[in-house]
Design brief:
Layout: H1 3-27, H2 33-58, H3 64-89, H4 104-125
Helix pairs in contact: 1-2, 2-3, 3-4
Amino acid sequence: MSRRYLITGASFGLTAVILGAFAAHGLKSIISGDALESFETGIRFQMYHAFLFMIIGASSKILKKIQNWIFFLLLTGVLFFSGSIYLLATNALTSFDYTSIALVTPLGGSLLIIAWAVLLLNFIKLKSK
């Protein structure tokens, strides 16, 4: 078991639930429907990857070297993807124009895709018993 993965997964899960409650009760009346939908997309992707962190943390089927790469890719990917979506969705509430960081979202998504691909390749290379 990898404590680092489990702690990160639990932290992402916890903050996803908090942000979901915040969106449903705090943001619903002050941002547009489209912005709220985008915010919820960020939450959904964060929660999906919280589960992935937990699964990887409990797995012994991933090489240690690969685990380090996947951890970095997932952590950075979630922070960039979901984090930028949160900022962009609430852009109207701040004096800073977050549209200048809009390219961070696809970069984060790309890092998540790469992490899944690295994980897949790790599983393909496993020796069958």
